[in-house]
Amino acid sequence: MIFLNKVVKAYVDTEEQANKPIWKRMFLPKSKKNVIKELSFAVNQGEIVGYIGENGAGKSTTIKMILGIIPSDSGDISVFRKNPFTNRKENAQRIGVLFGQKSHLWWDLPLIDSFKFLQKIYSKNTKEDDEWIEWLMKELEVVDYANEPVRELSLGQRMRGEFICAMLHSPELVILDEPTIGLDVKTKQKIMEIILKVNQSKGTTFLITSHDFLEIEKVSHKIILLNDGKNAYQGSVCNYKEEYIYLRKVVLHDTVDADISIEGLKLFTQNVSSLEYYFDVREIAEEDVLRQIKKSRQDLQIEVSVLTFSEIMIIKGKEMKNESYNDLRLLSIQGE
């Protein structure tokens, strides 16, 4: 459904331009930097794909090219086996989009009026279309406030409405850009539940960008990690976790100043009343780590666990930035 092959996209480097003398800015070609660097990946029909990367990695630029808002500088992009830039209007009928920072809703109108207006735009006025919207409203629990002005709704209520707007024309492909940012736990859970239900019942394809790795892990068939404009990983969450299952986390409770110096043990994070370390069981055995910690501080309460998906990503991002591992095959992204 989505195919990118060695795609490159560059923008004017405004910072470098600002540092140039005026005559260079006027007469010489503008300096550019590649935001997307020979990016290649595929999204198949019926998949739920998590598209993950830190701010500035190139996620939004990728989405704009997929939607046909901007063209690529080189490489091949196809959506529904068509060039998305030259077939933007045609593809738009088959795509639903939700940007976390942009709205489909009319601020002063009741929520239901926004739904009806978008129905007219997409020519979705049949009985089946009405039943589809009613189902979405019921599932997302917006019926009770559907007649209230959008300006009086909470962020969570508005985002539920935004999600319905992206889904009301029964798109084959839905692109959600940070759909759960700033939302409460209940609203996040509701949106993720609907994604799974729609995917299973209609075979709808979802491409979701997010920093909330725990949510991505729950719903995605596979993940694509983007770093510095490049595809750093593409595969299932399960395979990713299995590949790095050798990492362990050690939590030292009731301390913030434990002087632990053990070869192979690295600091992960410092909390109010605990310190968290991690280590690689291929370098040092868990028993050796525990023995050396207890030898150094017998009074500490120690907890050892397997790292979560998001913790693995954070750690791998740190390691690559510090260049502490030269043989890593995967670059993960540190989330917010």
UniProtKB/TrEMBL annotation:
An annotated Gene Ontology molecular function: ATP binding
UniProt keyword annotations, A-Z: ATP-binding, Nucleotide-binding, Transport
Transmembrane segments: none
Short name of any one Pfam family annotated for the protein: ABC_tran
UniProt domain ABC transporter: residue ranges: 17-253
InterPro entries attached to this UniProt entry: AAA+_ATPase, ABC_transporter-like_ATP-bd, ABC_transporter_ATP-binding, P-loop_NTPase
Coiled-coil regions listed: none
PROSITE patterns recorded: ABC_TRANSPORTER_2
Name of the protein described by the UniProt record: ATP-binding cassette domain-containing protein
Organism whose genome encodes this protein: Facklamia lactis
